[in-house]
Amino acid sequence: SIGKHQEGLVPSRRLGNVRGAAGPPSPPGRRARPPAPGAGRLSGAAREELRRRLLGLIEGHRVVIFSKTYCPHSTRVKELFSSLGVDCNILELDQVDEGASVQEALSEITSQRTVPSVFVNRVHVGGCDHTFQAHQSGLLQQLLQQDPAYDYDLIVIGGGSGGLSCAQEAAVLGRKVMVLDFVVPSPRGTAWGLGGTCVNVGCIPKKLMHQAALLGQALTDSRKFGWEYSQQVRHSWATMTEAIQSHIGSLSWSHRLALREKAVTYVNSYGEFVEHHKVKATNEKGQEALYTAAKFVIATGERPRYLGIPGDREYCVTSDDLFSLPYCPGETLVVGASYVALECAGFLAGLGLEVTVMVRSVLLRGFDQEMAEKVGASMQQLGVRFLRKFVPVEVQQLERGLPGRLKVVAKSTEGTETIEGIYNTVLLAIGRDSCTKKLGLEKIGVNVSEKTGKIPVNDEEQTSVPYVYAVGDVLEGKPQLTPVAVQAGKLLARRLFGGRSEKCDYVNVPTVVFTPLEYGCCGYSEEKAGEVYQAENLNVYHTLFWPLEWTVAGRDNNTCYAKIICNKLDNDRVIGFHVLGPNAGEITQGFAAAMKCGLTKQLLDDTIGIHPTCGEVFTTLEITKASGLDITQKGC
Amino acid sequence: MATPHAPPPSSAAKQTELVWSSPACRQLIRNHSLRGTGVLAWGPAAGRQCYDLLVIGGGSGGLACAKEAAQLGKKVAVVDYVEPSPRGTRWGLGGTCVSVGCIPKLMHQAALLGGMIRDAPHYGWGVAQAPHSWATLADAVQNHVKSLNWGHRVQLQDRKVKYFNVKASFVDTHTVCGVSKGGEETLLSAEHIVIATGGRPRYPTHIEGALEYGITSDDLFWLKESPGKTLVVGASYVALECAGLLTGLGLDTTVMIRSVPLRAFDQQMASLVTEHMAGHGTRILRGCAPEKVEKLPGQQLRVTWVDLTSDRKDAGTFDTVLWAIGRVPETASLNLEKAGVHTNPVTGKILVDAQEATSVPHIYAIGDVAEGRPELTPTAIMAGRLLAQRLSGRTSDLMDYSSVPTTVFTPLEYGCVGLSEEAAVARHGEEHVEVYHAFYKPLEFTVPQRDASQCYIKMVCLREPPQLVLGLHFLGPNAGEVIQGFALGIKCGASYQQLMRTVGIHPTCAEEVAKLRISKRSGLDPTVTGC
C-alpha cells in the first residue's frame, strides 16, 4: 500500500512495525494482531465473492472511500475531496451489515486495516495522513487527473525471467502490455538478446557448461565401466560455446515469439522514468520515444560488479562475457567466492583448465558454512587452487592475445603481504549490482536503498510509488533466483489484473549451487537456525554417503554429505535441508516440496527409500552431530 | 492374530515374563523335550544352539532385522544359503538386492555412460564412439559386489550376530535344521524366527530347452563374457531393465512380451518406457510367446515363438536367452508345514498380518517371500528393522506399505509413487480425478539434440480442492532422485496446490514437477515450451 512505503514523506511507525516483522519465517505484522470481532468468519467462497465485489467497486469508480460515520479522520478525508470538488463513492462500514468482513477483505487487498481507506483511479492512496500528504505533494491531483487513456495498462522495464512472466500473464488476462528491454554492453563489449540474465549469461549457459564438465568426468569414469577408447580426449571450447550460444539464440527467439503470440509489445530500448506514469525509451541508435502506462513493473535485475582497481574494466571478464568468449580462457584466476565464482571455477577446471580462486573471506557467504567448506574441499580435490584472504589490487596486461597474459597483483587482507600471479584470464565474480541507478526512479519518488541500490517492496511487490511494482533480483531482501522471479511476476500480474490474491511465498525457497559436486539446500543454514532457535533446540542429523555409481568409478567414498536440521521444539520439523552430491538439484526439489508440506524427521523415517539412489540417504539418517558418532561410509 | 509381544502359544505361557532371555529359551526347549513333542533330533545333541531370534535368509530384510535386534541386545543368528542357479551361479551374503538391485543399477550406469560418450562431442570433447568391454565391466561390478558381501559379514560380526552358511528347514515351531554344503547338520532353536528367504527367478519349465539353455538375472551379471545377441523374455521391470542396459552397452537386444509391459504400473507410463526403448534400438516383440529353445551347432540358440494374435510361428537366433518372467518365493525347502506356517497355494508366498506374523505367531516373514508385499529392498529393510524393534518392545509402530516410491532403471528412468491413473480412476471414479501432465525437455538434451519425446510427468490428484495428490509419475533422467523427495511430500498429504507453491530449482528436470499446470481434462497441449 502507499501508506507503508511513503518513507520519504511519512516517518511512519507502521512502516517500522511491518518491516521489523517481515523476515521470512514470521507472519507479516498485521496478521499477528487478532482479527476484528466478527471478521474473518466468512467461508472461503464468500470471502472471494466479497473480494471480487470490492475490487469491482474500486475498479469502477474514480474515487472510492471506505469510511466510518463516526471516524473523524474519515470525515477529514471526505471534506478534502469535497473541497476539491470531486465526487466520491463512499462506503460507510458501520452502516452496512458486513462492514467487519469488508474491512477484513480490504486489509487483505491493501495491507491497511484502518479507515479511512482511499482509492483514486484504482490506486490505493492510503489513510487520512497519506491522502493529505499526497495532496500536498501533488500526487493526488495527478492521480485524479489521470487520463484513463494511457498508452498501456502495464509497462514492464526489463525482459528477464520475472519481467517476461509478468508481462505475458498480464497479456493473457487481456491487458495491453509493453516490455522494454535493452542490454547495455559489458565493458568488454558483450551484449545479448531478450531473456535476461538466466537465459543469456546465467542459469542456462552455466548449467550447460557444468554438464560439459560432468561429461568430462563421465569419460574418465566410463573406462572403468568398460568403455574402451585409447585416444587422448581433448576439449574444444569453441565447439562447446557455439552449441550453447545456438541454444541460447533459440531460447531468446522463442521468448520473442511468445511475446508476439500474446500480443505484448516488445521494444528493444532502454526505459527510464521522466515523470509520473511516463517513460522515455531510447534505442541503440539513440532514438527516443515516450510511453505512458497505468502501472509499471521494474524487473531490470543486476549486472556483475567490478573491483574498481587499475586494469579491471580493461582486462578482466565477468560472467557476462565468459559464456560467449570466442576463445578458450586458458589458465584462469577467478576472483570471488560467490556461487557464480565457484560454479565458473568448477566447470573451467572440469574442462581441463588450470584454475585459481582468490577469496577475500568466506566461501558462499549466506550459505551453510560447513557445506560451503565441503564444496571448496571437493573442488580442491579436482585440482582447483584456492588463495584465501587475498584481494587483487592491480591487473596489468603483459601480452595481448586470445587469450593474452595478465599479471595480477594481490594483497593479503590480514597483513601487508603482496603476491603476483600470471594468468591468461581474470574472471571477476565478486557480486552483482542492481540496475536501478539510471531508471529515473528519483523523478517519480520510488525509494531505492542507498546501501544496496535495491528496491524495497511490500509483500505485494509494490514500491513506495503505488502504481510501480518490482520483481526479481532488483528486490531488496528477496532470493535472487529465476523461478522466484517467474513466480512473483506471474502472481503479481494475477493480483493486478486477475482479481486474485495469492502472494509470492519467499519462504523455504530451494536453491542449488552447480559446482562439480552439486550442493542443494532448502530452509535454514545451521548457523541461521542456531541464531533463530538456539543450538540446543536443534537436532542436526548428518551422514557421508557414497553414490553407487562412484563405487566402480573408484571415486572417494567420503565426500558426499547429507544434513538436515530439525527443530526439537516443533516435533522435530525439518527446517534445513542440505545435500552435497551428484544431481543435488534433482534431489532437493522434491524435499523442498515436502518441507512446504510440513516435513518432520518422523516422516523421513517412515518413508521408504528408492534404492539405489542418493536421495534415499535422507530416509535413513540416524546419527546426530551432538552424538559425535562416526559417519564415514561402508557397505550398501 | 497375535501381537508381537504375545508369548509363544500353549506350553510357553508360563515363561511369558522371561521371553527374550536365553535361559528362558533353554527352559522352553526343555519343556518341549519333556513333553515329548516328538522331535527326535532334539535332546542334548551336539551343535544345537539357542537364540532369541533366528533369521532365515541373509538378504536386505533379514540382515536389517538381525542387525537391529542384535543392536537392541538380543542373541541373534542368521542362516543364509544361496542355492546355485541352474547355470551354477552363486554369490555371497547379501541376498537378491545385489543381483537385481545394485548390480543392474551399475550396469545401467555403464549404459548411461555410453550415452554420455555420444553426447560428449557436442559439448566439445574430442572423443569418438568407443567399443565396450563386457569383461572389464563385469569384473569391476563383481569386485564391488564381493566387497559388499564381505562388508555384510563384517557387519554381522561387529554386531555379534552369528552367521551360518547353511540351508535351513523347519523341524518344529521353534527349531530349524541347517545343512551345510558339506552335509553337516546344525540344530538351531529360537524364541522368534523370521523368514526372509526372498525369491528366485522363475523358469518356464514347460518350454523345451528353457532350463538347459536359458539364463536369468541371477546369472547375467556374473557372465565373464558378453552375452552377445540377447533375447529377453518377459515384461517385468527386470526384463525391461536388462534389455535396456544390454542395448545401451551396444548389444543386439530383443524383448519378447506376452501381453502388457510393467503390469501394475501406470500403463501410459509403461508404454512410454517401451516406446523410448524401441526408439533407442531395443527390438520389442509384443504379443509373442516362446515355444522352444534349441542349441545350434556352434554355440548359438534358436528360439521359436508364436505370435498370439496371428498364431503365426517365427524363429530367431540368439547368443543368449534371458528369462525374466517373474520370481518364485523361496519356500519349498523350508519345510513350512512342520512349523504350521501357511502359504498362499497360488503364489507360494507366506501369508502374513500387519505385524508381519505368519499363521504361527512367533514366526514372521518379511521381504519378497511375504504375500502382498512390494518386492523392494528398502521396504524389506524397513520392515525388518521395525519388526526387530517391536520384538524388543522399542516401538509398536507397524510398517506402512502405502505410498512406497519406486524407480525402474530403464534407459529413460521411470519413477513413481502412489496410485497409477488407472487405479485412481478405479478407486475414485473418473469424474473425481484430475491428472496434470507435461512433456518436457531436459536442458542437457538440447545441446546434443537428444530426442525428448518420452520425457513426461504426470500427477494424479483428486479433483476436489485442495486436490490431494494420489500419485506422481516421472519419466526422465535421474527419476529416482527426483521422486524421492516428492514421495515424502505425498506422505505428508500434499495437495496439488501446495506442490504448486513450491519454487522450482532452475534449471533441473525436477522443477517441471512443480510447474505442472495443464490438466488432461483441459485437452490443452502439455508440451513445455520456453524456459
Automatic annotation (TrEMBL), chain A:
Q: Which gene encodes it?
A: TXNRD3
- What's the source species for this entry? Bos mutus grunniens (Wild yak)
According to UniProt, the name of this protein is: Thioredoxin reductase 3
Report the function annotation for this chain: Displays thioredoxin reductase, glutaredoxin and glutathione reductase activities. Catalyzes disulfide bond isomerization. Promotes disulfide bond formation between GPX4 and various sperm proteins and may play a role in sperm maturation by promoting formation of sperm structural components.
Principal cellular location given in the protein's record: cytoplasm
Q: Does the keyword Isomerase apply?
A: no
Transmembrane portions of the chain: none
Q: Specify the FAD/NAD(P)-binding domain's residue ranges.
A: 152-489
Instruction: Give the Pyridine nucleotide-disulphide oxidoreductase dimerisation domain ranges.
Output: 509-620
Report the InterPro entries cross-referenced here: FAD/NAD-bd_sf (IPR036188), FAD/NAD-binding_dom (IPR023753), FAD/NAD-linked_Rdtase_dimer_sf (IPR016156), Glutaredoxin (IPR002109), Glutaredoxin_euk/vir (IPR011899), GSHR/TRXR-like (IPR046952), Pyr_nucl-diS_OxRdtase_dimer (IPR004099), Pyr_OxRdtase_I_AS (IPR012999)
Enzyme Commission number(s): 1.8.1.9
Quaternary structure, from the entry: Homodimer.
Q: Which family does it belong to?
A: Belongs to the class-I pyridine nucleotide-disulfide oxidoreductase family.
Which GO molecular function terms does the record list?
Answer: flavin adenine dinucleotide binding; glutathione-disulfide reductase (NADPH) activity; thioredoxin-disulfide reductase (NADPH) activity
UniProtKB/TrEMBL annotation, chain B:
| Gene3D superfamilies, A to Z | 3.30.390.30, FAD/NAD(P)-binding domain (3.50.50.60)
Q: Which UniProt keywords apply?
A: Disulfide bond, FAD, Flavoprotein, NAD, NADP, Nucleotide-binding, Oxidoreductase, Redox-active center, Selenocysteine
Listed EC numbers: 1.8.1.9
* Annotated active site: 506 (proton acceptor)
As one GO molecular function, the record gives: flavin adenine dinucleotide binding
GO annotation terms (biological process): cell redox homeostasis; cellular response to oxidative stress; glutathione metabolic process
Gene name of the encoded protein: TXNRD2
The entry assigns this protein to a family as follows:
Belongs to the class-I pyridine nucleotide-disulfide oxidoreductase family.
| Disulphides | 97-102
Q: What class of enzyme is it?
A: oxidoreductase
The keyword Transmembrane helix belongs to this UniProt entry's keyword annotation: no
Q: Where is the Pyridine nucleotide-disulphide oxidoreductase dimerisation domain?
A: 404-515
Cofactor(s) of this protein: FAD
Record InterPro entries: FAD/NAD-bd_sf (IPR036188), FAD/NAD-binding_dom (IPR023753), FAD/NAD-linked_Rdtase_dimer_sf (IPR016156), GSHR/TRXR-like (IPR046952), Pyr_nuc-diS_OxRdtase (IPR001100), Pyr_nucl-diS_OxRdtase_dimer (IPR004099), Pyr_OxRdtase_I_AS (IPR012999), Thioredoxin/glutathione_Rdtase (IPR006338)
Organism placement in taxonomy:
Eukaryota, Metazoa, Chordata, Craniata, Vertebrata
Co-factor: note: Binds 1 FAD per subunit.
The name of this protein is thioredoxin-disulfide reductase (NADPH)
Q: Cellular component GO terms, alphabetically?
A: cytosol; mitochondrion
Entry-linked SUPFAM superfamilies: FAD/NAD(P)-binding domain, FAD/NAD-linked reductases, dimerisation (C-terminal) domain
Q: Which Pfam families does the entry mention?
A: Pyr_redox_2, Pyr_redox_dim
Q: Where is the FAD/NAD(P)-binding domain?
A: 51-384
Q: Which residues bind NAD(+)?
A: 234-241, 326
Q: Where does FAD bind?
A: 105, 368
Please indicate if the UniProt record lists Cytoplasm as a keyword: no
